Every structure is written in C-alpha cells, then in structure tokens.
Amino acid sequence: MAILAPSILSADFLNLGDNIRKLENAGIEMLHIDIMDGHFVPNLTFGPALVEYVRRFTRLKLDVHLMMTNPQDYIDEFCDVGADYITVHQEACMHLDRVISLIKKRGAKAGVALNPATPPSTLQYVLDDVDIVLVMSVNPGFGGQKFIERMLFKVAELDRLRGDKYGYQIEVDGGINNKNVKSLVESGADIIVAGTAVFRGDIIENCKKIGAIIK
Ligand SMILES: O=C(CO)[C@@H](O)[C@H](O)COP(=O)(O)O
C-alpha cells in the first residue's frame, strides 16, 4: 500500500487554498512542495513564505523537496515555517551526513533525493539515518515530463537493499500517471508524487482514481 502526495507545482496558484481543500476532501495526507532555486535546477518556484502560508491553512503533512544548491543554509528556515519532511539532493550536498543530522536535530523527517543518473550506492553510508529516499523519475525542474522507465529498476533496487535492514520509505516523483503507477508500487514505492495527473481536470476524481490503484 502506498500514499499519494500531490505536487503543488501543477496547482492553480490563484486558487491554491481551494485546490488544497479538494485534496483534503479526497483523503490526501501529504502535500509535496518543490523549492527550485534556478541553479540546481533551471526553474524557480517558492520560498519559505509559501510553506508558512500553506502550513497555517492545512494540517496535511508538508513534504518539502529542496531542489537547490547549499540546502544546508535553509534547513532552519523551512523547519521554522513547519515542514514535516525535508528532502535534499545527494548531488547538492558536499556533507550529506551533516545535513541529514541537521534536519533530524530540528525534528523533521529527513529525505535524500537521487537524480535519474545517480545510483542508490551513493547513499550506502547514510541509509541508516534517512527516513525517505526520493527517486526522481524525470530530470528535476519541470512538471509534465515523461516518466523515465529505467527508474523502475532503481525503485526495485532500493526495495531489495532495505530488506529488513533499513526503515526508509521509497518516494518516486516525475511523470507518474494512472498507467505507470501500479508498476511503481509493485516495485516497492511507498510515496507517489504526482502533479499533472492530479491537478489537470477534476482534482478529487483524479486523486480517487490513483488512490484506488495504489491502495
Ligand atoms: O519535481 C518535480 C519536477 O521536477 C515534480 O514534483 C513535478 O511537480 C511532478 O510533476 P508531474 O511530472 O507529475 O507533472
């Protein structure tokens, strides 16, 4: 059984509150928020202020994905505004072990994201400490891209690797829809991030359809 975490990157920003209430009505538990800095990825999105407003508005778990260089400089700020989960990129952290400790010391759950070209073996010495491994199934930066099929092998590899030894959850993000979501859950995914497939069309219906496939 997996859960769906809608990515607000594809939401209607002028009606964000309404969109979030619809997600709550559809039984969603977690909201995915992509913070893009224009350096690590070629796009710009939100900062801590948006997270703070969303935190005041909803009790959904906030899953904040820092697609940025020097994420260590912003951990405190995102914890202060109420992030429940903070995910940093393996590729962006010179001192990954230290950044994970910092997130956990602040009481948030710690995630590490892997770009499509980065193998799980790069996390060997931190897997004991991470709560989430996030497999990017597109090159990060934009919604609406095509799912990279090979990432199914990465999800399966992470599932094999954790066995009974590690407690991390496997999250997958990018290009996920009604057609490919089943194979991801069968490969071991626990958290499914989706933007376009949730926000294009009827939000509640879309959540219910995906929810019925992954439960
Ligand atoms: O991180 C990203 C994109 O880089 C995602 O969180 C997207 O928001 C997912 O959007 P879809 O691929 O589902 O449209």
Automatic annotation (TrEMBL):
| UniProt keyword Magnesium present | no
Q: Name one GO biological process term.
A: pentose catabolic process
Which terms in the Gene Ontology molecular function aspect does this entry carry? D-ribulose-phosphate 3-epimerase activity; metal ion binding
Broad class of enzyme this protein falls into: isomerase
What does the note under cofactor report?
Binds 1 divalent metal cation per subunit.
The organism is Calorimonas adulescens
**Function of the molecule:** Catalyzes the reversible epimerization of D-ribulose 5-phosphate to D-xylulose 5-phosphate.
Q: What is this protein called?
A: Ribulose-phosphate 3-epimerase
| Residues noted as binding substrate in the record, renumbered to the chain | 7, 65, 141-144, 173-175, 195-196
Q: Where is the active site?
A: 34 (proton acceptor), 173 (proton donor)
Q: Which family does it belong to?
A: Belongs to the ribulose-phosphate 3-epimerase family.
Binding site residues for a divalent metal cation = 32, 34, 65, 173
Which PROSITE patterns has this protein been placed in? Answer: RIBUL_P_3_EPIMER_1, RIBUL_P_3_EPIMER_2
Q: Which cofactor does it need?
A: Mn(2+); Co(2+); Zn(2+); Fe(2+)
